[in-house]
Amino acid sequence: MKIAIIEDDKITRLELSKLLNSHGYETVLLTDFENLSEESKKYSFDLILLDINLPYENGYEICRKMKKLMSVPIIFVTSRDTSADELLSIQAGGIDFITKPYDTLILLEKIKRALQLSNPNNFRELTKKDCTLDLHLSVLKYEGKSIELTRNEFRILYYFFMNEDKIISKEELLEKLWNDKYYLDENVLLVNMTRLKKKMKEIGIIHLLENIRGKGWKL
Amino acid sequence: MEVVSFLTFLEGKISELLFQIFFLSGIVFLLIFYDVDSSFIILSAVLFLSAQISFLWFSFQKKQKDSQRIINLADELQESYYISDILPKPGDLQNKAYYYALKKACKAMNDKISQIEKEKQEYEEYVESFAHEIKIPIGALSLTFDNTKNYALKKETDKLYRLTEQMLYYARSESTEKDYFVKKLNLEEVIHNVILKFRHDLIDHKVIIETHAIDQIVYTDEKWLTFILSQIIQNSIKYFDKQENKLTITGQDNDTNIILSIKDNGCGISSSDLSRVFEKGFTGSDRSKSNSTGVGLYLARKLSFRLGLKLDIASEEKEYTILQITFPKGTVHRI
């Protein structure tokens, strides 16, 4: 997925690009503010992050022009936050609006939503390392045996199933849980992890989650 | 203003009256001197006096009526500094002078007011644009610290942002202009975003968050409500003091309104301070918490009021604090 960034503050532009890169997106930085539509023709992308206060033309006008050129979703990213700004951005055809300083979690979430990546897969179950996670019944199955998972346990395991081979730290796990309205504190998370491992052991799963010392866990 | 009695009215005309009585007695003496029939003299004197008294009475009545009209005009006018524009023009010399003086004073005052209003508006606009400008570097710093995972500095940046935000809303709360946008909101979503906003602080403080029945629909401005909730949660975080910190957020639908309660088990507020927490600049009698501006709750309540919401507080010292927002159902918000 490729995201175009139109932002005149250099540091913001570069850091934004860094952030998106580290989350698996490619980025295109458009900086020829005088001829943005010309410049944008050279690339293809799936989403535009657009600032409002820009030299030469403001974001609303650029948004209207871009809309004529291509049909990609546009998210306004701006330091202006009055109701009027929000209204104008919707009128110009933006699909979302986020104000500076960005909360990275919310920004990434909005990008996901804009790219329609967030609808949790329509699978019924996920299978990794011979273990099957039933997404509807919150059940983990292995070699014909199965265990029921609590709400929290299921959620935790779900992130690992969705991010195979990636080390997920305690902090990251907490952020992901909070983002999905599971406001666990650290202790509760650790208790859940321990219980989850114990449960899995009962049906013979000892290979699913790997403990990476000082860093977190990995599927 | 008290109503002037007839006697006081006469008092004001004392020199005129004395002169007329003196003049009348002069005439009477002259008539006696010239041997005019005494019954004629008495008749003329009585006639003159009664004519004079009834004239005085009627002019008193008229004056009183006119004065009352002016008093009523002044009392009914909401912005009384516009009084000079609606007063009837006086006919007599002295009142004309008073009228002139009043007109002049009102004009000078109105000029001053519009000048101050203009300056205030310019100042508000400046604050607004300043806040927007400073959010650019704050945003850049915040992203940089996120990318480098420098949480200590990220936290400082968050503080910068929150203080800027508070200043911006302070300016907005004073503004007479309507800068909010009432729409249908899901309380759960708004609360979720506020919790996410404070997730680092909440996780650091190992806060246990419980939510009950917050999936409710309310009609209000999202940004203002977010700001109000942020002030409340920020306060809770600041005053947590126990081993186990708890934040309980509860929604409640009573046919006529929706009540949102945010309860923390922090240090609480003494009953002597409780009535003053919404005052501007009140930072509590406990000086050990010096890092407060005394503006947070004041602003929260002021903005709530403007949105037509009610903000209440209850607390038990050392035990808990509850902030309660009441969203009316089906009534029009205050404009």
UniProtKB/TrEMBL annotation, chain A:
Which InterPro entries is this protein grouped with? Answer: CheY-like_superfamily, OmpR/PhoB-type_DNA-bd, Sig_transdc_resp-reg_receiver, WalR-like, WH-like_DNA-bd_sf
Q: Which GO terms describe its biological process?
A: regulation of DNA-templated transcription
Q: Which CDD domains match?
A: trans_reg_C
Q: Where is the Response regulatory domain?
A: 2-115
Secretion signal span: none
Q: Which residues carry this modification: 4-aspartylphosphate?
A: D51
Q: Does the keyword Ligase apply?
A: no
Q: Which GO terms describe its molecular function?
A: phosphorelay response regulator activity; transcription cis-regulatory region binding
Keyword Transferase on this protein?
no
Q: A Pfam family this protein belongs to?
A: Trans_reg_C
Q: Which GO terms describe its cellular component?
A: cytosol; protein-DNA complex
Keywords assigned: DNA-binding, Phosphoprotein, Transcription, Transcription regulation
Q: Which Gene3D superfamilies match?
A: 3.40.50.2300, Winged helix-like DNA-binding domain superfamily/Winged helix DNA-binding domain (1.10.10.10)
Q: Where is the OmpR/PhoB-type domain positioned along the sequence?
A: 123-219
Q: Which residues bind DNA?
A: 123-219
Q: Which PANTHER family match?
A: REGULATOR OF RPOS, STAGE 0 SPORULATION PROTEIN A HOMOLOG
Report the protein's function: May play the central regulatory role in sporulation. It may be an element of the effector pathway responsible for the activation of sporulation genes in response to nutritional stress. Spo0A may act in concert with spo0H (a sigma factor) to control the expression of some genes that are critical to the sporulation process.
- Protein name (record): Stage 0 sporulation protein A homolog
What species does this protein belong to?
Answer: [Ruminococcus] torques ATCC 27756
Biological classification of the source: Bacteria, Bacillati, Bacillota, Clostridia, Lachnospirales
